[in-house]
UniProtKB/TrEMBL annotation:
Transmembrane segments: none annotated. This is Mandelate racemase/muconate lactonizing enzyme family protein. Residues 162-259 form the Mandelate racemase/muconate lactonizing enzyme C-terminal domain. Pfam families: MR_MLE_C. PANTHER family: D(-)-TARTRATE DEHYDRATASE, D-GALACTONATE DEHYDRATASE-RELATED. InterPro entries: D-tartrate_dehydratase (IPR034611), DgoD-like (IPR034593), Enolase-like_C_sf (IPR036849), Enolase-like_N (IPR029017), Enolase_C-like (IPR029065), Mandelate_racemase_C (IPR013342).
Length: 397
């Protein structure tokens, strides 16, 4: 078997929302389609991938380095020994040939997009949903039947007041979520506490609310928020300071007895290992949010899971950033603590297969081969349409 073609396109996920650091008015994602010569149900198997959200499309890196390496490789450098499927680990090494270690930058995003598409193709060729493939190949053979998901939103945008924020959170509860998340750090401390208290009235207590500062605070501000929020006993306090400031995180742990969460902007297993070694994160209560697509894909994420295990953390400590179906499959197949979900933003890239409902804060997964994109009509339609145009003509829509 072989890869016949890899198509690349860029899609817009722009919206008027804002977190404490950026607005999303120009946000884009890369989409790739890996076309194989394997026929299933009378059609060639095509794997799809996209790069989560928050880091912009990686078009230059894909076209200058990572896709040419795959196109130039001999077919047997990319397939397994039996010759009947692609080999993710070999493909990863081909993409990363002639890349120095460290300084991960955003090449990890480009590699992650391709990695997602290959996992989709591999599980379609194997004829099973990816979560089952993962449970059989790397786990204990049995995937979780459902996954904890929380509703991320609570963004700032112009003209949004507390009653709109409360109404948004009520919609999430009505959809079946039991935990919601809102942004902090984009307003004054007093204003944010008012916003938090207003949401707490709706969700019924701190255990149902996480807050996310998106890395905005210095140590003094992070601790001031910690002091002010301690009494709420929140689900978690996310990304207080700069993602690479492990000392800040460790100091915060001393001031904040509640659960902390971070890691969405760490893009390699080495960075993840540094966080759990030096960031004061506590396996008995804290959460790790590495998003595999932003961080070299699932091949690397498995190394990350090993690295955190060496420091006393379990896969159940992980609730990845990004709200995409790849992490949902990983959560079920490799037994993570859950997954993020964005019921109202980053459409159609976030969300679940059509007809799958959230119940008591948990979702099931579709029973079809692959990641489940074909079972999410709006997403597959978009990914097909932008990757089926003439090469080079694929534009942001
Ligand atoms: O606002 C963002 O960039 C997304 C984010 O942090 C999250 O989902 O945790
Ligand atoms: Mg976040």
């Amino acid at each position: 078997m072989k890869i016949l073609e890899i198509r690349e396109a860029v899609a817009s996920i722009a919206s008027p929302i804002r977190n404490a650091y950026i607005d999303f008015s120009k946000m884009t994602v890369s989409v790739v389609a890996v076309v194989t010569d394997v026929i299933r149900d009378g059609k060639p198997v095509i794997g799809y991938g996209f790069n989560s959200n928050g880091r912009y499309a990686a078009r230059g890196l894909l076209n200058e380095r990572f896709l040419p390496r795959l196109r130039e490789a001999k077919p047997d450098e990319l397939i397994n020994d039996a010759g009947d499927n692609l080999d993710l680990h070999k493909i990863w090494s081909v993409m990363m040939s002639n890349e120095k270690p460290g300084g991960h930058g955003e090449r990890s995003v480009a590699v992650g997009v391709v990695d997602m598409a290959i996992w989709d193709a591999v599980s379609k060729i194997a004829g099973v949903p990816l979560y089952q493939h993962l449970a059989h190949t790397y786990g204990d053979g049995k995937a979780d039947d459902s996954v904890f998901v929380y509703a991320a939103g609570g963004y700032y945008y112009s003209g949004k007041d507390d009653s709109q924020l409360r109404a948004e959170m009520r919609r999430y509860l009505d959809l079946g979520y039991s935990v919601v998340k809102m942004k902090i750090g984009g307003a004054s401390l007093d204003e944010d506490m008012r916003r938090i208290e207003s949401v707490l009235e709706v969700v019924g207590g701190g255990k149902h609310l996480g807050v996310d500062a998106n890395g905005r605070f210095d140590l003094e501000t992070a601790v001031a928020y910690a002091e002010a929020m301690k009494k709420y006993d929140l689900f978690w306090y996310e990304e207080a300071g700069d993602p690479l400031d492990y000392q800040l995180q460790a100091e915060l742990a001393k001031a904040y007895p509640g659960a902390m969460a971070t890691g969405e902007k760490l893009f390699s297993h080495q960075d993840a290992r540094n966080l759990v070694r030096h960031g004061g994160m506590r396996p008995d209560r804290d959460w790790l949010q590495f998003d595999c697509v932003l961080s070299y894909g699932l091949v690397e994420y498995m190394r990350t899971l090993e690295a955190i295990a060496d420091e006393g953390f379990s896969s159940r400590n992980c609730i990845p950033h990004g709200g995409h179906q790849l992490s949902l499959n990983i959560a079920a197949g490799l037994k993570l603590g859950g997954n993020e979900s964005y019921p109202e933003v980053f459409k159609p890239f976030g969300g679940f297969a059509d007809g799958i409902r959230v119940e008591n804060g948990r979702v099931g997964l579709p029973d079809a081969p692959g990641i489940g994109f074909e079972q999410k009509t709006d997403l597959i339609k978009l990914m097909r349409s932008i990757t089926e145009t003439e090469p080079g003509a694929n534009t942001v829509r």
